[in-house]
Write a structure and sequence with these properties.
38% helix; 7-stranded antiparallel beta sheet; 3 helices; alpha+beta
Length: 149
C-alpha cells in the first residue's frame, strides 16, 4: 500500500477495521492506493484516505450521482441550493459534468459512529438525487454507468 504519511496509514487501518461491521461487500479497486469501494444494492460508495498535512489525514467519502448531464446555469443553481440544506457534505462536479456527492471527515478524530453517519449521508443522497437530476437535466444515473476508478 502506498501511504504518503504515517497519519494516513493509521487512519486507513482504523477505517479498514470498521468496514466489516458496516458493509459486507468491500473491495479494494486500486490495489496500491488507500481506497475502499463499498457496494450497497445498486450504489457504489468510495472511501479514500488522503493525507492532510503531516500529522493528519482526511476521509473522503463519495459516490457518483449522475453522468453525461446537460450542464446549465439552472442545474448549477439547483445543486448549490441543495448544498445549503445538507447536514454534511454536498455536490461537486467534475470538468466533464459528472456529478458526485461527497463528505469529508478528519481522520484522526473521526469515530466509528461519525463515519457511519457520513457514509449513510452519501449513500442516501446519491440514491435520492440520481433519478431527480437525470429526469430534469438528462444524462444517466451513475448506477446505470460503469466508471473507471
Amino acid at each position: 500500500m502506498n501511504f504518503q504519511t504515517e497519519a494516513q496509514k493509521v487512519c486507513y487501518q482504523k477505517v479498514s477495521d470498521w468496514l466489516p461491521e458496516i458493509c459486507d461487500r468491500v473491495s479494494y479497486p486500486a490495489a496500491n492506493n488507500p481506497i475502499f469501494s463499498l457496494q450497497f444494492g445498486s450504489a457504489t460508495v468510495l472511501v479514500e484516505i488522503r493525507p492532510f498535512h503531516q500529522q493528519e489525514s482526511s476521509i473522503y467519502i463519495w459516490a457518483y450521482v449522475a453522468t453525461e448531464v446537460e450542464v446549465s446555469d439552472d442545474l448549477i443553481l439547483y445543486l448549490l441550493k441543495q448544498n445549503y440544506i445538507f447536514r454534511f457534505g454536498g455536490f461537486s462536479m467534475e470538468d466533464d459534468g459528472d456529478i458526485r456527492f461527497h463528505v469529508t471527515l478528519l481522520g484522526a478524530s473521526c469515530q466509528q459512529n461519525q463515519f457511519k453517519l457520513a457514509l449513510n449521508e452519501v449513500l442516501e443522497s446519491a440514491d435520492h438525487y440520481d433519478d431527480l437530476i437525470v429526469k430534469r437535466w438528462g444524462g444517466r444515473r451513475a448506477a446505470d454507468a460503469l466508471f473507471d476508478i
